[in-house]
Write a structure and sequence with these properties.
Glycerol uptake facilitator protein, globular, single chain, mainly alpha, about 0% strand
Amino acid sequence: MADTLRKAIAEFVGAFALVFVGAGAIISTRDRPDLLLVALAHGLTIGVMASATAHISGGHFNPAVTFGALVGRQISLRLSVVYWIAQLLGGLVAASALLGVFPSGEWRSTSLGTPQVSPGVGIGPAILVEAVLTFFLVFVVYGTAIDPKGAFRAVGGLAIGFTVALDIMMGGPLTGAAMNPARWFGPGVVAGLFDNWFVYWIGPLAGGLIAGLVYGRVLLEPSAKP
């Protein structure tokens, strides 16, 4: 029980940091949007928090990453549910905290940094973008953090953070590149923005599913599987 609580706290803190810094960066640059700054804000946050908590919980901070680990038989269903609750709560509390940082007139213009599908991007393409980008993310998590023969000890969470950043550089102008239901959930619920909400669940979970099947069940050596 104590170990499960430790893992839940680590996941809560990581998800909180991602939303607080990531969404906060979007609000802070609302007058002069800066894709590179926003990408680095998300990527660096994930990188440092994954490095700080990988030895405790694995540093998922993302229901899609946890789902990918579940599909690849790297985590139990019971612990996955604990992670999902902690991640969503972390995003929700972080978004609520941002209300105390930015005046209403500032955060409302960006809907509290909630990821949104850009005009002209169809629902199908939006889901595809989120799925492909999340596949990259979960694939890299497997290769650097889950696979015992991976490069995690050498590069820490940097590879995971870099993947988040490069994904945002591509998908940010299209869907916001959430790659994470918790990243949408917190700001979306607090800001009351539910437009195309399913894009940020279906896409990331589909990407996590495929990555879990490909790496967890095909590429991961049998001796490395629990």
